[in-house]
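Honest question from a wet-lab person: if I give you the sequences of every part of a complex, can you actually get the arrangement of the whole thing, not just the pieces? Trying it with mine:
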Amino acid sequence: MILDKINSPDDVKKLSLLEMQNLAEEIREAIIKKVNTTGGHFGPNLGIVEATIALHYVFNSPADKIVYDVSHQCYPHKMLTGRKEGFLEPEKYSKYTGYTAPEECEHDFFKVGHTSTSVSLASGLAKARDLKGEGGNIIALIGDGSLSGGEALEGLDNAAVLGSNFIVVVNDNDQSIAENHGGLYDNLKLLRETDGKAECNFFKSLGFGYVLVKEGNNVEKLIETFKRVKDSPHPVVVHICTQKGKGCKAAEENRENFHWILPHTLDENQPAPVFEESYTSITREYILNKAKEDKTVIAINAGTPGVFGFDKEFRAQMGKQYLDVGIAEEHAVACASGIATGGAKPIFAVMSSFIQRTYDQMSQDLCLNNSPITMLVYWGGISGADATHLCTFDIPLISNIPNMVYLAPTNKEEYLKMLDWSVDQTEHPVAIRVPMCGLKSTGVEDTTDYSVLNKYKVVSKCEKVAILGLGNFLGLAHKVKEELKINATIINPVFMTGLDTELLEELKKDHSLVVTLEDGELDGGFGEKIARFYGNSDMKVLNYGAKKEFTDRIALDELYKRYHLTKEQIADEIRACIS
Amino acid sequence: MILDKINSPDDVKKLSLLEMQNLAEEIREAIIKKVNTTGGHFGPNLGIVEATIALHYVFNSPADKIVYDVSHQCYPHKMLTGRKEGFLEPEKYSKYTGYTAPEECEHDFFKVGHTSTSVSLASGLAKARDLKGEGGNIIALIGDGSLSGGEALEGLDNAAVLGSNFIVVVNDNDQSIAENHGGLYDNLKLLRETDGKAECNFFKSLGFGYVLVKEGNNVEKLIETFKRVKDSPHPVVVHICTQKGKGCKAAEENRENFHWILPHTLDENQPAPVFEESYTSITREYILNKAKEDKTVIAINAGTPGVFGFDKEFRAQMGKQYLDVGIAEEHAVACASGIATGGAKPIFAVMSSFIQRTYDQMSQDLCLNNSPITMLVYWGGISGADATHLCTFDIPLISNIPNMVYLAPTNKEEYLKMLDWSVDQTEHPVAIRVPMCGLKSTGVEDTTDYSVLNKYKVVSKCEKVAILGLGNFLGLAHKVKEELKINATIINPVFMTGLDTELLEELKKDHSLVVTLEDGELDGGFGEKIARFYGNSDMKVLNYGAKKEFTDRIALDELYKRYHLTKEQIADEIRACIS
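Yes, you can. This is the full assembly:
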């Protein structure tokens, strides 16, 4: 095996062309086997194998510095930079993160997981190099849908005028996670179809030099071009056309579904997936029905439709009532605000981790204008995810913006009622944190009037101790009560953006302790607002939630223990407090 | 006067070309007089007079909808849409806001003050129009430096493929607030120089139709072109070349200084400004000196150098150690992170209101990577500003991001010591909230070691009541103590991002009340963290700061009263609490 000889990029430089071609096949085979076992990013990594080999053949990492955008296409890079064991030895499959990680290796420069960051980050490396009077090439590898993000576009505009060496490799696989959206991609297509000769060239218009490598999975052609641009004294774009999912027929044919796969997706005789009703499925169904009866309803997402069940059938049924803006969350929120101002009804679905990309638009374009949009925030909560994809921060992020109404439903009926209210109302920007726990149904229609803001629900009224279980954590509140073996009051706060001061005041009469449970960061979150409210009273307050920290692939159970979020820990601390 | 006859856009349509030309002069004269009296955006409004007249002549607002970017170039629009009194009658000068405001007029669609938003917002209006099967033109007027923001670029990429009527008017006055930066502006220049014929055209590369109006202050030419693109069935860019500051010689000649002016700037025999040492001046001086002794120090800003005293002399002295990225805060933060990773020392200066534009970059590119940059946050605090430019939100925004160190200096020596520590350290992303109050000096060098995080300073130790006066509000803490006439403990917390748990624990021994004062939004801010800390104790806590709300040009005194921030109010409430 060629891979046996590869322990660092230096070893790549010793290979013949034929060996490099064989190496590509070996890497591909390892990725297919590994990712089909563990799950992970599949298509992007298979497409970028040859380019990674060629980069390490031509350039001298880490003196030359390669920055991977999203960094979900860094598996081949990891295999060539001393971390192949993580792909070849099943017992070491989980040793390395699925993204670049400077603590793992001198060939990685940044922890990266959100898209569209590589050009700006790498241009910073270039600027530092120039300030220090050093040499070396700086390379940003972007593409696979991430060109459309505002940060990437700001970065390109600025990097083009760096005035020194800077190489942007644009990995054009004619695909984002789903299909491409935006005029930029039409230009990439034109450039592909004209062998890069079309005069109207997005990159050239910004001032970049430009080279096209049409055969972006051909090591020889790539090497030839990378040699040509190496040590370029000015910024240049190398536009490479690659095959997403290359080497795996299913992935080549269905690029969207194989962008990221679950374990064993490729195994034969996989049992057909059993359909289970979920918050995702009921949202999908709700939107389809609502859109049929109201032609002004429009479902929006920013380049990740699969997460929300916005599959091809959904898109076809929705027609022009569906809008995928590509990876462009800022535009999504501002555009939704405009749609609402224009009298239509936008529903923007977004993952908690990615709503971070659009704070100013939520504040200025949306909330300052009080535009009635519905924002569905998915996956919000403590999780064992990679540090780059934590969903712990959306409550502090969203709920401190004036005018926003951020709701935390706790069961199916509540959720659907909120959704329906939100879509039709015309008063507020509303965000709903789609529950992360399994679908819970009360079987009884929710008749709450959510237009009465900041009205908490008393689930069971007792005395002494009141537990406020927010959203995902209402269930935990019940468990704590059971564990305590006392008749605690249970409250479902519903509204993360405001206080039910009347109820909180009332609790003072016969309660001495209020406990808040929230599935997210404590700092700046919901519980602290309760603590502030009671600051000037005899009421004791205990706040539970996540610590302010970036965690990286730590099991949920462990995190719960760390944050004192087990029912036993909470019950003990409540006992200590009221004894 | 022609203006006498103009009460709505309909009246503009009745004018002859000559009358419109005269109208332009009348508008210009009114703007010069008004803005020289009240202060405000000057150059941008003078440049856009003819285009505004032509837009209202050709299009039928509000059926056709014009969205103004930044909206600091909307004065002529306001004068043509029923609000001329605000520019002609001195007693009504303050009646209307300096930005578009839907509550004022049916011809305004959004409250806008941050840049780069018009294309996304307007494309939402277009989408709503299409969903509802309505007609009419949608026009976004962008330019004057705002093209480079990520939201604008995401918006253009998406708007280009709307597939229906959409008109982007690019106001190219060859200037941002300061000079232009970024490759995009080189393309605008090329287009100007080739009469719009250059094939390599940024807008065309995205898919827009394109027309150039080289004489962008010529009403006739503008009308001719707007007529041509009116009812265009597909998205089109009208690139107009205007003279920023037109009609005022000083403003034409010094476009940067006359972008926004103070009252009476144009008056003759103005006394020469007296130089006063300020936080801005000492920062400028510090950076210049530091940059001389360390060639890796680099000062960064995003298109607003004047705010930080980064004047032409500063830029010349700094040379390549100065970087203006244009309006592109996302790039600024990510690039700074890259610069720090590359071993150089970036200092990014930014206004509190604009740091909002870059949350995800602070979280992912910066703090997750723990890159040692220095971020200077200016103007943070409660103010009587327009709703679009509030600086009340930076503490909740910044301080809940893991790994960030956010410092609140209270005097000159502290500030300089923090700055010096921050620039040279290599452990943390550090933000410093540059004080808003006048420069205070202790006259004694600060010897604090700020690398010991979260160590609060006890200014005076007494018992019973402890007042934590954060940053700008340390002075208020002293005043409250004086008002109280008791020996309260005064604490300068210094660190907004963490708790000095040892000190806070210690206070429990001989204090029964802790009071926090912060110059910013209470929700998600500093005080709530203190309330949470003491939730489970007998310590009472009172938190003072701003309410979660957008305020609009409300006098500071009034806001302080509203938020119970006068020393009398606070003292009364403390007395009530400890009695």
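Two things worth pointing out. The CA atoms of residues 522 and 545 of chain B lie 5 Å apart. Chain B touches chain A through 117 residues (CB under 8 Å).
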